[in-house]
């Protein structure tokens, strides 16, 4: 059975136009994996150690939680978190 063209290293070297395609697909896959990993480890809605602290969301009570924040946003007065 013959392999599809572009699925082996030797056929990719014969068709160098496929290299950017593989690079973009690999970069997109790595980016999606890293963003999912960031959400699983940094998101205040996710609790990995729920036995250690009864209310882990209180850690973010006086912190900003944004994907990207400028310096100006950190100097503004923080609004207090509600007590539940």
State the gist of this model.
The chain is mainly alpha-helical and 84 residues long. It has one domain (9-76).
Indicate the percent of residues in helices: 40-55%
Whole-number mean pLDDT: 78
Which oligomerization state do the chains in this entry correspond to? single chain
Please tally the helical runs, counting DSSP H or I stretches of 4 or more residues: 3
Low-confidence stretches: none
* CA-based gyration radius: 23 Å
The major β-sheet equals: none
Intertermini distance:
65 Å
The global form is elongated
SSE pattern: HHH
Q: Structural class, from helix and strand content?
A: mainly alpha
Total beta strand runs: 0
Please give the domain count.
1
Strand content: under 5%
Describe the structure.
The chain is mostly helical and 84 residues long. It has one domain (9-76). It has 3 helices and no strands. It is elongated.
List keywords for this structure.
0% strand; single chain; mainly alpha; 84 residues
Set out the fold topology.
Elements (H helix, E strand, L loop, with lengths): L8 H6 L4 H24 L28 H5 L9
């Amino acid at each position: 059975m013959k392999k599809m063209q572009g699925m082996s290293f030797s056929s990719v070297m014969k068709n160098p136009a496929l290299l950017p395609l593989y690079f973009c697909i690999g970069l997109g896959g790595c980016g999606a994996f890293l963003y999912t990993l960031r959400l699983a480890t940094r998101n205040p809605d996710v609790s990995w150690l729920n036995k250690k602290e009864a209310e882990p969301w209180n850690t973010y009570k006086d912190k900003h939680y944004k994907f990207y924040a400028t310096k100006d946003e950190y100097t503004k007065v923080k609004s207090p978190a509600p007590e539940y």
